[in-house]
Amino acid sequence: MQTTFLALVFSERQINKSAAFSRGDIVKRKAENKMIRRLLVVAAVFGTVCFACIAVRLFYMQVLNYDFYQQKALSQQTRDKTLTPVRGTIYDANMKPLAISASTEMVTIESVKIKNEEQGLLIAETLSELLEMDYDTVLKKVQEKSTYAVLKKGVEKEVADQIREFVKKNKLNCIFMVPDSTRYYPFGNFLSHVLGFVGSDGQGLSGLEAQYEEELSGTPGRVITATNAAGDEMPFAYEMYYDAEDGHSLVLTIDEVIQHYLEKNLEMALYDNKVQNKVAGIIMDVNTGGILAMATKPDFDPNSPFTIVDEEDAAAVEALSGDERSTKRSEVLNEQWRNKAISDAYDPGSTFKILTASMALEEKTISLDSRYYCPGYKVVDKWNINCWRTAGHGSQSLIEAICNSCNPAFIEIGQSLGIDTFSEYVRAFGLREKTGIDLPGEASGIYFSNMGTTDLAVAAFGQNFSITPIQLITAVSSVANGGTLLKPYVVKEVIDSDGNIIESRDRQEVRQVISGSTSAQMCDILEQVVTVGTGKNAYVMGYRVAGKTGTSEKKAKELSTGVKGLRISSFVAFAPADDPQIAVLVMLDEPGVYPLTGGITVAPVIRRIMEDVLPYLEVEPVYTEGELEQKDITVPGVIGYERGQAESALKQSGIKYRAEGSGDTVTDQIPAAGAVVSSKAEVILYMGGEKTEKLVTVPDLSNMSVETARKTLSNLDLYIRATGAVNSPGHVVAIKQSVAANSKVAVGTVITVDFSDLDQQAE
């Protein structure tokens, strides 16, 4: 631009010196030069504006929007693959895997390498079929023209191999398989509400899987590879590799064997009692707060958590469409996944009397010498509050009042404490706050905002306020363990992939609620509830079981639905009473078989659980003389013995016998070796012959006494194994038999018969 200007100046000088140019030419030439200068100025301004625009644009792209355009460039020049970490394993207390991550594969696609539309349609059709995915979803991925996209995770090897065959056959370079892992629960429905489950992306959605997501999930790794203009990967030298960090594992306080015992018995209770609104159970170590077992039935399979288990619920969802169907499905699934043991608050009923009595003994407002009179009701603020026994219990001691579960007596006990002291102990037992157990979804109960004298009266025997099962068993465990409230927990250790302990949990004391002496008194009293009181059907021969029944009304639901007689039957117990190790709580929400009381419906469940768990924990039984007479005996095998040898073996085992035949050697016997029978059973020895092969018809033993049932079976050469309240002084009858009536069985078959004391049916 400067050079042009000098040229014009030089030209103008030449014109002035030359006489050859006319005056008109000079004027014309000046005008042209002036125009040229104007054009040059305009060009300069335009160039400056353009340069400024470019500079502003570059500043916007390289400074203000640097991250965005850097990502754009990287997406074109590199390929970034995620390496999935292995999710940590969940073990039971004995290191048995309950949730593991199995090796699978992830299918990815580089749609930019798809040659034409025809090839894309073939890929979409084939992969949607093999991967069981929606065709339109796969087609969308195919048409995106991306350098890397995930089609599906958790693909099993069989399917992955089929995809490889498809890729090889069609010479495709756009579909790849990447190592992956899938969550797997080897025991299916087992412990499902506690373990929870993961979603399709491997993230924990409920239970321990959600609570410990950060510990279990690990850190994903990355492989960043440079690509050329064709989208192909550059040599290895251009690759950056970041290892995935596997997740930590959890070691639970849950014992797989004890959990199986709990679930087995809850399943039986669910169907035997036709329970309408689920059953729940917890087994706790009273000395640590560790949860040994926890279950809700019915449950679900965490391997397929989005499958609706209940057939009626599934049909109800299928009958809907659109948003209504989606909403209903969500409601049903959330209810299916709900852990009733920690998420549902309920009126505890008479089980709460354990705590009321403990409060009053600790405050010395009552003593073992206290006496109460029950005419069948108690008047409070002009309200008649009934006892479950409408005829009344008459005059009774404190221990008798607790064993009888007498409401009027407990109204007086509550009144002796007063509203303030009673409420303070409710707080001290941890019933006005969550326990803090390491599981998601824990609820808190509902207590009186402004308690009155009538409220105190009904609260003293566990009505008109609500708590959760985990709150109740935690409080009762404090009564059993010497008076210390402990924080319940499920995970005792977090360990890394090498087995090193990252985090450890043990007994965590919250507060001392009652003294050791009060605790000892309550243990003795509650043992008597099981031996002679309303809990007689929880009695276990050889073990000192302490506990309390509970039957609470569901008034709110009765009012809202118009359905009468809705109850929650429950029982909370611990054992051994003289050295408590475990506490067990079981609740049946709306049982459908009468009578609905905890003493009839739940006490037998507690007994069966204790019969299973206490021997497993190696708690030694101690039998009284009376129990030894009733104790079951294992039949020894004496086939092949001489008569004298057989007599000696049977006498040593305490079993009577009779011989059939005149031979010198035992050739057969009934029942078979290893059968468990009553000590009053008579073994038949066949001397020189074989036992009869005839079949006999099993009688209906319902409502028979123990002795009548034994004689009835003995007359048919069948044997009884009596369980339940066999030693109870009350009205004991058979309620269940292991072989159905009218079935055909071989002579010598042992039939287990469950007996119940019906004296407690009204509680």
Folded structure, characterized:
This protein has four domains: 2-63; 80-252, Alpha-Beta Complex (Penicillin-binding protein 2a (Domain 2)); 343-622, Beta-lactamase, CATH 3.40.710; 626-760, 2-Layer Sandwich (Trypsin Inhibitor V, Chain A). Helices cover 38% and strands 23% of the residues. The protein has 26 helices and 33 strands. Strands 2, 3, 4, 5, 10, 18 and 19 form a seven-stranded mixed beta sheet that branches. It has a five-stranded antiparallel beta sheet with strand order 12-11-23-22-21, sandwiched between helices.
Distance from first to last alpha carbon: 111 Å
What is the overall shape? Answer: extended
> What structural category arises from helix and sheet content?
alpha+beta
Task: Give the tally of β-strands.
Answer: 33
Largest sheet: 7 strands, mixed
CATH fold annotation of the largest domain: Beta-lactamase
Based on the coordinates given, report the CATH architecture of the largest domain.
Answer: 3-Layer(aba) Sandwich
Strand coverage percent: 15-25%
Query: Would you state the CATH class of the largest domain?
Result: Alpha Beta
Q: Helical amount among residues, as a percent range? A: 25-40%
Count structural domains: 4
- Helix count, DSSP H or I runs of 4 or more residues: 26
Overall pLDDT metric: 87
- Rounded to an integer in angstroms, the radius of gyration calculated over CA atoms is 40 Å
The CATH superfamily title of the largest domain? DD-peptidase/beta-lactamase superfamily
Low-pLDDT segments, ≥5 res: 1-10
